[in-house]
Amino acid sequence: MIASAVMLLVCAAAGAFVLISVRGTAEKYKTEEVVSTAVRVSYLIKRERLPPVILDEDVSAVQVVNPTGQIVSTSYDLSGRPRMAAFRPSESSAQESKIICRSPAYPDQCVIVVALRVPQSDGQWLAYAAGPEVPWYVSRELLMALIGSSLLLIGLTAFGTYQTVGKALSPVEAIADKLAVITTTDLGQRVPVPKYRDEIRRLAETANQTLDRAELAVEQQRRFASDASHDLRSPLTAMRTEIEEALLHPEATDWLVTGEALLDSLDRLQALVTDLLQIARLDAGAAPKLEHVDLADLAARELNRRQRKVDVDRELEPGVVIIGDRLRLARLLNNLLDNAERHATSLITVRVRLDREWGALEVVDDGTGIPADQREVVFERFTRLDAARSKDAGGTGLGLSIARQIAESHRGTLTIEDSSVGARFVLRLPMAASA
């Protein structure tokens, strides 16, 4: 519709230009024709062969006025009609033309009137000749031709634009139809990608990339829900088994031992629920409470309040200040320490140092270490390496994942780097501007 409206305006402008140009030419030609008629009449005046009524078919719409203002000769068509005009040519010109509407001789139309001065011995005679004014549309044939060609152009524009836009937008329709049938249970489908490298192709590629991410996220959520259900079921199953065995043989049950076993399962269940709640908060993007935190002071406080299971070597450089959430960073450090204690043989080393523009915190254990190809795997949720499952029975499989999320929420990194012995976890956080 917009293209048709634009073409309508273009055709209207072009038609108006054509009409104005042609009308100007036609009016000039018509005026010259009327002047020619007046000149022919002036020859008759000069030769004094002017009849009262001019019957010449080539001379029409003519009146001759003598010096006293009387009509002395007229064409047959104007016989008996009043004088068609009263204007005279100027002194500097022998002729003058005007368009007169509602002339006494032509009360119902506009005409081109030419006044020609003819000098005679008895004074100045005037020969008036008239012709119909050229209408604004020039002629019906020209007007119909312009209207017909304009309608044809508008129709072709509408049809061509409809076909072109329809063809151009057909990939969008295909993309919309495909997106309409894709659900969370069927994210394996992808929208069709057009063959032409244009904006619609980029839209389709972006939609497919979004679907890739959505499928990955949904798969991760499903796997997370499955793993969480499994890990929650394990302590509950153990507790149920303990209670059922105790109830089957109540007289032979050591209730103190049973209570301790139940407490162990409850501790594991509580740790798992706590980790799940922490992950939910991190996934929700809850804003951290930012403040200036001295990493050395934070590490010292956390180490002082923990019960030692292995020896801890401290190498804490003061003055390494970052901006972060003290509680979350403390959780991160404790997760690293819990992991290190489960895998250390006898010693854990905690370092705080300045690493160029970063504040670095390292937790190193003297255990068996982590193979290079498994260093990213351990940060996935519910991941525990097979070789360490026996020693890592107390872990939830979420601690390292939570630690990395906390680091990333502080615009930092948490990685496992090379060490001469055991595993070396390195946290890097941007230094505070005022530090």
UniProtKB/TrEMBL annotation:
It is an enzyme of class 2 (transferase). Transmembrane segments: none annotated. Residues 227-433 form the Histidine kinase domain. Keywords: Kinase, Membrane, Phosphoprotein, Transferase, Transmembrane, Transmembrane helix, Two-component regulatory system. SUPFAM superfamilies: ATPase domain of HSP90 chaperone/DNA topoisomerase II/histidine kinase (SSF55874), Homodimeric domain of signal transducing histidine kinase (SSF47384). It catalyses: ATP + protein L-histidine = ADP + protein N-phospho-L-histidine. Residues 166-219 form the HAMP domain. It is found in: Cell membrane. GO terms for cellular component: plasma membrane. GO terms for molecular function: phosphorelay sensor kinase activity. Pfam families: HATPase_c, HisKA. Its EC number is 2.7.13.3. This is histidine kinase.
